[in-house]
Amino acid sequence: MLLSTSANTVVCATESNSNEPELSQQPVEASDDNQQSNGNTSSSSSEKTQEEEKDLSQDTSSDTQAPIEQQPKEEETVSSPSDETQQGETDPSESAPSDVSQEEQKDPSEDTSSDVSQEGEKDPSESTPSDVSQEEQAPTEEESKSPKQEEETESTPFTGGAQLEIQLSSWKAGVKPVFSIDGVDLSEQNGVYTYTDALENDAKEKTVQLTIRGNGFVTYEQQVVLQKGGTTRLVFTNDASILSDKEGVVNPGFLLFGDVNGDGSIDDADFAQMAQQVEAQQTSLTQLALLPYMKSQKEIQAKPVIALMSDTIAEVKPDEKTELSGDITGLLTGSGNGVSLSAKDGELISENNPVSLTMHVKDDVALIDGFVISAPQHNAPTAGTIEVTLDDGSVISLPIESGIAPMSRMARAAATVTVEEDGSIVVNIGTQIAIKKVTITVTETSGSNKLAEISSVEFLNGMENRIPEPELNIPTNLKGEPGNESFIVSWDAQRNVTGYQIHVTKDGITQTYTSQINRFAVVSFNEKELLNGETYEVQVQSVNGDWSSPLSEKIEVTPQATRKPPAPEGIGLKAGASYIDVSWKKMKDTNTYQLYYRKKGEETYQQVDGLTTTSYRITGLETETEYEIYLTGTNHLGVGGASATHVAKTVSVDPAITPNYKLINVPNEDGQTTAHIESISYPSSAPENEFAIADNDYQTSWILKSWDGGGFNPGKPSPIITFDQAYEMNRLVVVPDDAQVHGYSYAKTRYWDEDGNVYTLDGQFTRKTSSNGKVYYEFDYHKPFKAKKIQVNFALDWAYGDGQISIAEMKFYYYDNIEADINALYTDDMHIVLKEDVTQETIDALRERVNTPDEVSGELHPKHESLMMELDAAEDILNNQADYQIIRLDQTLTARGSTSFAFSLNDFQPLNVVAGEGDELIIFAGQEGSATGTKLPIQIVFAQYHGESSAWQAESVQLVQGKNVITVPKISSSIANEQGGSIYVKYTGASTPDSKISVRVSGATPIAGINVRGMADADKLPAIKTYLQQLNEQVVNLQQTHDQLEEHSELDYKINTCFLNSTEIGLDDMLYSVPATQVMSGLGLTPTAGGLSEAELDRAANQMLNSLKAMDQFMLDTYKVKGIDVFSNSGVHKKPTSRLNIRYSTMFDGAFMYAGGKHIGIEFGSVSGLMSGTPIVADENGKYISGGRFGWGIAHEIGHVLDTPGVTYAEVTNNIIAQFNQTQDTPESSRIQDYSAVYKKVTSDTIGFSSNGVVALAMFWQLHLAYDQNYAFKAFDSYQEHLDNNFYSRFYKYQREPASAPNGLTLSSDRDQNIIRLASAAAQKDLTEYFTRWGLIPTEETTAYISQFPKEERPIYYINDAAHTYKLEGGKAFSDNATLTASLQHNNAIAETANRVELSLNVENAQQSEILGYEIKRNGKAVAFVTGDNTTYTDVISTVNNRVFTYEVTAYDQYLNPTNTVKLDPIKVKHDGSVTKDNWDILTNMVSDDDIQDDTQESCTPIINSAISAIKDNDFATTYTGKTTDGTNPYWIVDMKANLPISGVKLNGASTLNGMEYEILINQTSSDAASSDWTNVKSGTLSLDENGTQTIFFDKEGEENLMYTYDASYLMFRIKGHSGEEITLSEFDIIGLPGDNLELLENGIGILSEDYDLGDGEKIPAGSLIFTGSYTGNPAYNVVKLLDQNNQIINGTQIIFANVPEQGALGNVSDGTWVYYIEPEALEGMTLPTQIKAELYRVDDALTNENERLVSDTLLVIVPTELPDISLQDSNNQ
Fold this sequence. Notes:
Number of helices: 28
Helix content: 10-25%
């Protein structure tokens, strides 16, 4: 009797009382690649615009055809396609023609089984405008529903008559046809076309004519029989990719689309006509591409499935113990919420307390052959029975069991119950029959067993036409467990798969990870740490070789902080008159911010809560008042620490207070204009008042809405002021409008003389802040000029969106020569040599002039303070009391032309002075041959002592020849540090050492500093001694100096915040900007009044010299690693002309050190370590002798700075430098101490860069170990010689200069490809295998380049530091007679060790020291590498089962030379399905003498690490012994870290437990032993064998032959009644699902002696060659193949017999027989194979056999030379 069909399998059964043979039959043919192809390929449909559809609809010859339905109009919504293509289809982007755009390739109507919107696109319901109705926003039903929903859409409830429903599945054309019944067009509602007929005259059925037509469609006709009281359903598609041509397959009706000319067929004429339309741009290429696809297809008639209506049921009634609630009518229509069943006694539902529901069927209902029970995921029936009472009174009883899903169960002849993947219970009676009633009894649910819920029950007719759900092994029950900057995702384990791929998506970027178990910890994304509070999307798919399942449903996971937020950082304040704008850095782990502010001096802060942005404006403040401000952050754990307090002062409402000394345009009494202004013209944007910028009214302004008012580009749109006469001037002031946001960075001045000649001056201006906090700009020209007209043109530093230029007021000043006269006292621009005629009287006269106020304003000269300072300095020179420090610039130290790295290097040159915010300094600058006032190629830089990473330096200030008066700017508003720090100069010109430049600073505080850059070695020690004495004096007087300075008098002295505690140490390639006290501390010096002793000085100076040499040496070696030419120091690879800068900085949250722009930040306590380095001393071969150059941290940060974009992996590639710094060419000095993790990665066959930083570093370090043949400190005499002998020198050289690589290479934007190309070029080897092992796959372009090199034959992915050392020391390689011997032990019969393969390893005629290790391959793929000190290896197999494995072993010596390869005899591993224990946590209430107290953890109480972990270490030699001490029953609880289907447990080494009673409990939610959610799944008495071993399976009474599984996350094993007794156990295992299996019987090959009747007229003819064996699996989803000794498929036909116990199970719990036969006619002339083996494949789709994957196979069996006779009999000998 035919039950169900699949693409290559016919499942049959014959009636018997038990063990009924159920068989499948299919032809198997060999293909060219020895594999049977089951997949189909489809072209992509197009996404057509309205216009394209109209063009197609114009071409028709049929007046009767309705227009082709168009795409939605503008106000309509089209659902977005899923990011998953339908199973069996190719991605549209792959199959569409190449000239079709990506947009055209997307099909908006393509139906998928996922409700996930396409990656990168919003769901239409989100993106639809708000004025679109909800109905319009939602995708239509056929667009959004799953295939199952398409097939089983609930009908609209109606009474009487008959109904027809037509649905579209996987619709590909983008347009829909018109459906009509007997000439009446059907309307569409929610994606379903419905027709209702009243069936006059009490007719029981009616035949109607269905016609489907439309422009472009080949007209389709079908007669449909409608039945009274039923809904007949038809499903149609036009997607050929989902069709199968296999016998017995149920396909949807197939409609042909592409009849352009309307002649009823699709042929070349249609193609030609559409080609013309394409050429005329009347339709798309996508339409044209569709025609050949359709041309080859044939129409398929749809097959009906009939669902009975709601009036089928006469009564729904619970039994006397059951409470029924809910919508009974909705139960039968699917339109309501269904019903709930509960026990009236209030107890839980169970086998002893079931709930039951009976549905009585009306007498006149048509015959049915099945029904579907749907239930929600929670509280769904998972155990019980379904009883169907037939018209004759007989009863079919079918058990419901969800232990394994999907599964089929079988009773009577052909009745089956199937639990599908979505939990639906499908009952197939197997024949059309009249039934009286259906009783559903529930004994267990998926929930708490308090309720059983049923959503709907639908009675069907035509079950053979019902398309079953495919079994795709899609991971289900995804769960995300948030962690701190991480999360764990877990899912239900899938059978017959070898692993999983985890896809994590955020912001349109997807990263894929791999795992062999159903649990994975995600700790990084896109090379960065995960962000707490940010949401990540996760999907998982199963994999098995090249096969992969569709993606799972999508879940979202949001990592959560495990600590309170860090204190906010990067706080910036900008004050207005009544407000302060506060900004700050976005902080990790912070949900909201709180801002606190108060007026300085007040006690209470005002608080602003709930800030979610990183800026806020505090309003309503008093003017010219200081406010203190700090912030905190908040997350779900509470409020974090407070930031440093910052201070800002509001400005005045009055305008900027600017000088009036010798003002030309003094205010007039009329208030309309200022004096001497004749007119003002505006080339652009004139204000209403012509004199707005010179009317002494600061509320009137000129504003230009542009970033450039002529200060940068040639155009000059700024105002032009005309005076009443020409005036001589050299100063002017510009006040911007109060609303000016951005400061000015550029300016150019134009003036007209009396004759109208125009001159342009570069703007020499300074941004000033007046005493009331207002900003203005002061121009101070070095030479006076006489102007009749003048124009000042500004520009911003950037084209800001809100950029503007404004002028509120301009002030001009008469030229006053007092400053020029003071400058004239000197013979030089540095003001250090007085002219010979300068006397005290000269100075006194000038001092009197400076102290004389302006006659008009009464003000002193605006530079009064600096001019008096100049005169005091002149007097000191006159009296020989001057002490000036002049800094000669190093013009070879410049950022110009420096090599590019990840971070900018530093070109600062310390002036060895410090100053505080607001200090006015005079900085003299001089360059030989330059005129006074000339701009010099040098700039001044002010730094903040202990500054934050984002606020440690101010903008550079341009210097001119001669005197520069500069005010120290405010860098930070924080009061945590004193405002001020070191002052630097930087050279911005070309390297011209002959043009000397010097700088001198007046007005700052000197500090000790030293610069040994370029200094002769002989001069360094004396210079250091001098420096140390100065440093000692500075530190001794530090607090006194602090207290004496006026600006510091109110500040508490602290050495870690006082900027006077600064020192600068300059080296060749490094600059230290650090606290002076910490330098002394690092040198072991105590500040000593009167100076350091000679002995102390000599010791400390030598220590410091050594430390500086160590840093110089380290930097030189680092540049060598980077391929820098440190020998000639020229060309593109020359050493950088700037330095790195390690400076004392404030650490941001979580940082110990950090690398940033132009500096490396370290904290106070880390500075002293800079003084402890010693240079490396090596012998002539470069072998390390002594020395140590700083720690990992400093080298790590230097590596960050010198990383090179394009090949950088954050926190990995920078460690190449740290590793080279640390190495001594020994294993002990390597950062990589455990190579086992490395070997696990390179034998894992996983794609993607390792997330373990140390393991990832090994990928780069192994390249050095493999290709560098010298000790690390080997010195070479030339750049070329160095390149020839150092891998990374070549690597980085080629990156900087790709053309210099062999045959020139091209770098791309893909970092991994760049790494592969550069490494292969540096090695001159094709490193495809190496990088593939590491998970980096070369692209075609990369392969094209690296294939020029010979392949690297050595397995360099196994090299380690010990091998490198061995090689450098000249250790012996294998001799020619070194021979590998290997053997294995494995026994499937011993269940406890069935998943363990023990390999014995040995190399004869070789010393153990010669052996690097052993590579173990399983079926041709490496699965492990173990080092040579191992003589055994145990392969514990948990991810695959029931497979034949052939092991190969190769030993490698330390030089990577191989021995012979030993190929061991194949074995078949067939274990019980024990799950992997890698991630288990085990809890117990027992204590053991082997428990360990962990004192390393910070805890108030000791932490005990239980020895119970010994039972999960896969080592039978380790045993746990423990007992309870609190009077409780002993137990252990396993946290499996995932939700798994489990079927039993296994105990090993548990002899002391024999005879004890036990119970096994499971839990889904908690590991708490006191939880009420534990469920007992097995109890009994332990009966262990002589080895203390027992396997316990979960089963039910009377069903001991069936595997019963439970889903669980936690399992408790409890011993009953043995408190205080010792419990001993070696290993504890949990058994999962064993998977499908296939066995080939040893004597199951022969000639069939007589016909075997298959039923329905089918038979196996006598004389057929029979191959037979045992089988476990699911016949609907398995395919058997038979292969010969050459792996060639043997043509034949397969049959699967599934032994089914009475009311037993068909499918995954079956244990039956398969037969493969070749008919006599095919045997004629056939050469029989000498050996055969069978392979079992699992397929995704029972109908099409698509996407097969190998799940089990057999060993080769010898075919007898004389074939015996065989007869086939079922279990009843029939």
